[in-house]
């Protein structure tokens, strides 16, 4: 068993702990750490964890087990998955809190820790009950607004007094979210199981595009290449919330780490906010059977994708600018082209190729070349602009 990757990851994760001064010099330089910087960074991490947990990807069960060994209690069936998902996400939040405190200082650590604890309890209760509380009946969608309120508080760099207020609001929201356990039906469990298998296989084979969000059913007449790309975007409208969180996170990161040029935050944010909306084009390019149903040339599809992704990136940058990020419009064409190049990648070729020895970690050159074709364009483009 090769333990080198594990040691490498462990070394990178502990870098903020034993090399805090070096990281502070590299990312902060001579700039003064903004007041309440730790709280802002941790609140953004909390918002991301809550939004991810409330998607309830842990709701899944093997259809064979449901057929031959159904325990009957569906709530107990999904409880272990909820515990794992909750522990993973708030474990990452705890790491951000510790690493951020080591690099940025521990100002306001007590109210920030109170917010983390209150958010962890709220996330577990809301995911468990689906927001179906006694007070709100079956209207559980209100809990999905909470992460955006937390992220907004982080983007505003609120002080300690407001942080205590956020913790109190989360406690109240927890009480309102208390209710009977959510018991999913067979269809939801099987759908979650299929998505989990797809993610596991895609991760094992390094196929990142296979884990892009699936399309929702939508009525959209497909005609031109542009309409096809727009239809794929509309079918993935559920990812708009993640894009909003990125728009709030980018100004926070720019203010906390001013040494990094704004073009990097704008370009990276636009890329990751736009990428999920390219899932439709990724599907038809990777699957030949689907590609035959789209009567447009590769050039027409790619050009239409760049234009549509440029519009999405522009809307995201406008939201980020309103949140405090400096306007860097020159990063938008680079991000849009990088997204189009990423999702237009053909099916991965796993044929044998030379491997690069990275200190005991062997990387197949041909596979890496295919995986980084889009991100490499983004890095080179932003490097030229910065």
Question: What keywords describe this structure?
Answer:
single chain, mainly alpha, two-stranded antiparallel ribbon, 386 residues, 2 domains
Distinct helical segment count:
19
Low-confidence stretches: 133-139
Biggest sheet features = 2 strands, antiparallel
Q: State the end-to-end distance.
A: 42 Å
Main β-sheet, spatial strand arrangement: 1-2
SSE map:
Layout: H1 4-13, H2 15-18, H3 20-27, H4 37-53, H5 63-68, H6 74-104, H7 109-129, H8 146-155, H9 160-177, H10 186-205, H11 225-234, H12 240-256, H13 262-274, H14 279-286, H15 288-291, H16 298-322, H17 331-343, E1 355-358, E2 361-364, H18 365-371, H19 373-385
Antiparallel strand pairs: 1-2
Keywords: Membrane, Transmembrane, Transmembrane helix
Transmembrane segments: 35-54, 86-106, 112-129, 141-158, 164-182, 238-257, 299-323
């Amino acid at each position: 068993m090769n333990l080198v990757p594990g040691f490498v990851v462990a070394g990178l994760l502990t870098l903020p702990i034993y090399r805090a001064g070096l990281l502070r010099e590299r990312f902060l330089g001579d700039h003064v750490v903004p007041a309440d910087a730790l709280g802002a960074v941790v609140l953004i991490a909390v918002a991301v964890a809550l939004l991810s947990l409330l998607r309830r990807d842990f709701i899944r069960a093997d259809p064979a087990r449901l057929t031959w060994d159904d325990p009957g209690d569906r709530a107990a069936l999904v409880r272990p998955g909820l515990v794992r998902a909750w522990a993973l996400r708030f474990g990452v939040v705890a790491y951000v809190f510790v690493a951020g405190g080591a690099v940025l200082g521990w100002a306001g650590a007590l109210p920030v820790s109170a917010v983390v604890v209150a958010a962890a309890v709220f996330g577990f209760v809301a995911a468990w009950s689906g927001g179906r509380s006694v007070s709100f009946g079956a209207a559980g969608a209100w809990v999905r607004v909470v992460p955006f309120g937390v992220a907004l508080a982080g983007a505003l760099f609120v002080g300690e007094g407001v942080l205590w207020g956020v913790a109190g609001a989360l406690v109240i929201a927890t009480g309102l979210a208390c209710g009977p356990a959510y018991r999913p039906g067979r269809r939801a469990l099987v759908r979650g199981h299929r998505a989990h298998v797809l993610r596991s296989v895609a991760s094992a084979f390094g196929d990142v595009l296979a884990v892009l969000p699936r399309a929702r059913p939508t009525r959209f007449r497909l005609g031109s290449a542009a309409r096809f790309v727009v239809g794929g975007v509309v079918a993935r409208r559920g990812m708009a919330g993640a894009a909003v969180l990125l728009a709030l996170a980018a100004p926070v990161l720019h203010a906390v780490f001013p040494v990094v040029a704004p073009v990097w935050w704008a370009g990276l944010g636009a890329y990751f906010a736009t990428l999920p909306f390219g899932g439709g084009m990724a599907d038809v390019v990777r699957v030949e059977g689907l590609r035959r149903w789209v009567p447009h040339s590769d050039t027409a599809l790619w050009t239409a994708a760049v234009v549509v992704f440029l519009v999405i990136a522009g809307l995201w940058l406008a939201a980020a600018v309103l949140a405090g990020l400096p306007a860097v419009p020159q990063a938008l064409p680079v991000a849009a082209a990088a997204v189009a190049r990423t999702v237009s990648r053909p099916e991965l070729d796993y044929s044998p190729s030379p491997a690069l020895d990275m200190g005991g970690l062997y990387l197949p050159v041909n596979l890496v070349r295919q995986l980084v074709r889009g991100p490499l364009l983004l890095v080179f483009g932003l490097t030229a602009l910065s």
